[in-house]
Each structure stands twice: as C-alpha cells, then as structure tokens.
Design goal:
This protein is mainly α. Helix content is 46%, strand content 6%. It has helices at residues 2-9, 17-28, 30-43, 86-93, 134-143, 152-175, 179-190, 195-204, 210-213, 220-225, 228-234; strands spanning 61-64, 81-84, 120-123, 128-131.
Amino acid sequence: MTVLTGRIELRDAASGARKKYADNLWKGEVEVKQGLRAVLLTMAPGILGCCMYCGGNTATDIEHFTPREHDALKTFFWPNHLLVCGPCNSTYKGDWWECDEDTDEPLLIDPTQDDPFNHLRLNLRNGEYQGETDKGRTTVKVLGLNLPERRLVAGRNLARLNIRIVLQDWGRARRRGDAEAERDALDVLKGQPFADVWQAMLHQAVLPGAALVLNDEPPEILALLRDEELRAATLIEFPLQATPVEGT
C-alpha cells in the first residue's frame, strides 16, 4: 500500500491525473483489497461484521473515510479505511466531506480514531441516536441513523429485547454453574447484530443515573450489565485498532 501511494504521488494533482490514476489502481488491486478487507473484518463488531458507521447492517464495502475525490493520496492509506454497509457507503456518506472551521477536524465520527460514545448517546427507550457534540450531530444527520426508511431504529429496538433475554439466560446459567450455557450466551452477546446496542447498554450501565435510564428493564438487568466478568468478555475498546496482516 505504501508503494502504491508513492506511485500515485508521482502523478500531477492539478490536472486530475493523480485522481484518475488512483481510481484505476483501486479498481485493479484485487489482492490488496482482499487483504485489507480481511484485517478490517477482524475490527468490525459482531460475528457477521457490523458496519463501522451504522452498527446495524452487515459490512460489505471498503470505505475511504476521507473520500478519494478529496485526497487521492489516501486511496491506499491504511488509517483511511473502514468496513461499512452499502447504504452508508453509497447512499448516505458517499463523497460527503466537511471539517470544523476552527480545528480542521472531520465532522464525522471515525471509529478507528474516535470513541463514538464521546459523541453519541443511544436512547434505549426509543432506539434513536442523539448527538452530544457537533461531530455526533453531523454523523446522525449524514448517515441517516434515525431515518425510518433505514429501519435501523426498529432493528435497535428488537436487538434490545433480544439482548435482555440472552442476558437473563447468562445470569441463570451462571447461578446454576452451567459453564457451557454461559459461554453460549456470551457468544450470542458478542456476535449480536446491532452490536452498537449492546455496547451502548454496557456504557450507560455505569454512568450516573443509569437506574433511571434502565428503569423499564427487569430489576436484575442493571446488575448483570455491571458484572465485571461479563464486561471484560464483551466490551469493545474504542478507537478500533488493528495491525495490518503481512501482505496488505
């Protein structure tokens, strides 16, 4: 990837030759993209690899966080790649790019550089995201995280109901000493589609006012969410990071 970036840099940017050459390389370097996808998949949450933007759909596309249209030199730049779903990549984010006028920071959450929970809060009662910062609010808007047509809100609400059942199963298995059932429940929680809902529940369970936020859950849920063993086994560390495998 470094070699390919060097080749792109040799082309003239002003004439458009650099962008055109980068596009052609991106289309042709199948093996490089296969290796890149393999690494990104290990970073994506959930057993199927959830989209690093919306968290709900299965990730299918390699996304350039800084669009190639904005900076062709980042076509093969490792920190500029995410694994996302087709709608987030093409329908919503596309070539969108905007930075803060004062800090020059991108106004979109990059989960390989940011902790999304510093910018977003998931309302567990209605399944909608609320932006806590400019970056968070812009992310919700650009990616359409609450739009009815995306069906993400409905998916989050269903995920929360499923998580509740599995979490209770884990608690019962632990009380009766059924190690196999405990492992099965943990596997389901770690592989949960809409992995962002499970992570949001874990984060909110240790915040001030958690009892009020989760007061519509069965009484044991908050205690289970605060269990150190469960948290250590399933809590995702942000920003997402990985070392590229040899060959990428």
